[in-house]
Amino acid sequence: MAGVSFEAVSKSFGETRAVEGVSLEIADGEFFALLGPSGCGKTTLLRLVAGFETPDEGNVKLGDAVVGRPGWALPPEKRKIGMVFQSYALWPNMTVAENVGFALRVRRLAEAERVRIVNESLVKVGLEGMADRRPHELSGGQRQRVALARCLAMRPGVVLLDEPLANLDVHLREAMQEEFARFHKEIRATVVYVTHDQAEALALADRVAVMDAGKVEQMASPRMLYAEPASEMVARFVGRGLVVPALVIGRNAERVVVDIFGTRLPVRGAGASGERRALCLRAENLAITPDGNGIRGRVTGLAFHGAATLVTVQPDAADAPELKVEHAGPPPEQGSAVTVEVRDGWIIPQRETQA
Questions:
Q1: Is 120 helix (H, G, I), strand (E, B) or coil?
Q2: Terminal C-alpha separation, the chain
Q3: Is the pLDDT of residue 175 over 80?
Q4: Given strand 81-84, what is the order of strands in its sheet?
Q5: What sections of the chain are H helices per DSSP?
Q6: Count of CB atoms situated within 10 Å of the CB of 237
Q7: What are phi and psi for residue 177, nearest 5 degrees?
Q8: DSSP letters along 34-86, please?
Q9: Residue 194: partners with Cβ closer than 8 Å, 6 or more residues away
Q10: Quick count: other Cβ atoms within 10 Å of Cβ 49?
Q11: In principle, which of 22, 89, 235, 290 could form an S-S bond with 85, CB 3.0–4.6 Å?
């Protein structure tokens, strides 16, 4: 096994800067997710690890070995990595067993050993008895398992997963998330998982790097990313947080007291009196109350979400953005006057300005 590291890595395609000065360390055996919107640079980082791209600046390392630097990259076949693509990349003319054992045949393993490894790999992903089928005879989830079995058979030290669940329906994605978690526990390899789906990243990864415009916005555990986003981008992207302006008034015990839309309330974070800061609010941390201390407004939208109703409230304060409230029980009526209680909020840290 081996860890993965990027040392001030940049990569451009023509005039487009896909990756800009990225430095990060992925520990040996860690399940690490690269999360971000399309075009943020996460797949480019994965391709740099795989050896499909060469960095313009900086070094890419597997363990202690440099495998990519400006003008040179160790060929992919010499990196001892496995990769699962969004499209699965299975050969349609080969059986399941032939797909799984292809790399072993290229390595010229003896047939008996190759058959043993292929059969063991298929058992581990629940595809025993399907060795003679071809890809078109399999479901999407089964084809994904074939790709995983191919990874297992290669005994990789690093596994790269590029949007592996994007082509599956919701129920199958949930089942395959459990499969990936079991797969990681089984092989104990370093896993780098690229996705734009925050639910996948937060459910699976030990740590997550959120990327935007070629840079890492924040790298932390899933819980930390959700509870304490380091930027407005992370706050909005992870958990679809609402970012609102707040005026810091002072402190109350262990909390900072802020004023938002004329209402004073205690929140988490840091700030000095008189500062105008950005505050992250989440729908599940807001509640509609009949009265009391809260933000007054009117209901402008209702969306039934099963166990709860997502209630949209337009505050009475001028220029205030709409609030989304996750409300259990019977919802208020459309157009009714309500009070929104803020049960938790996070003051987004200020970024240091460059001199």
A1: helix
A2: 41
A3: no
A4: 81-84, 158-162, 190-195, 31-35, 207-212, 215-220
A5: 42-50, 96-106, 111-124, 140-154, 170-187, 198-204, 222-227, 232-237
A6: 23
A7: -60, -45
A8: EE-STTSSHHHHHHHHHTSS--SEEEEEETTEEEEETTEE--GGGS-EEEE-T
A9: 33, 34, 42, 43, 45, 46, 160, 161, 162, 163
A10: 25
A11: 89
Question: Which residues, 6 or more positions from 329, have their beta carbon under 8 angstroms from its beta carbon?
Answer: none
pLDDT in tens, 88-101: 678 888 998 888 88
Q: Report whether 296 contacts 259 (CB < 8 A).
A: no
When computed from its CA atoms, the radius of gyration of the chain, rounded to whole angstroms, is 24
Going by C-alpha positions, the residue among 308, 340, 342, 305 that lies closest to residue 327 is 308
Task: Give the number of other Cβ atoms within 10 Å of residue 107's Cβ.
Answer: 10
d(CA 50, CA 68): 10
Provide the 8-state DSSP code for 273: T
Residue 335 neighbours by CB distance under 10 Å: 8
Q: What is the pLDDT of residues 231-281, one digit of tens each?
A: 999 999 998 899 999 999 998 878 999 999 989 999 999 999 999 999 999
Q: Are strands 337-342 and 286-289 parallel, antiparallel or unpaired?
A: antiparallel
Q: Cβ neighbours of residue 79 under 8 Å, at least 6 residues apart?
A: 50, 51, 62, 67, 158
Choose among 156, 86, 164: nearest CA to 117. Answer: 156
DSSP string, 151-162: HHHH--SEEEEE
Give CA–CA dist 137/91, Å, rounded.
Answer: 13
Cα 341 off chain centre by? 30
Tell me how far apart the alpha carbons of residues 144 and 150 are, in angstroms, rounded to a whole number: 10
**Residue 338 belongs to what H/E stretch?**
strand 337-342
In whole angstroms, give the CA distance from residue 325 to residue 288: 7
What does the chain come to in residues?
355
Tell me the whole-structure pTM to 2 decimals: 0.85
Q: How far is the C-alpha of 59 from the C-alpha of 51, rounded, in Å?
A: 12
Name the 3-class secondary structure at 247.
Answer: strand
Residue with token string 């994605």: 173
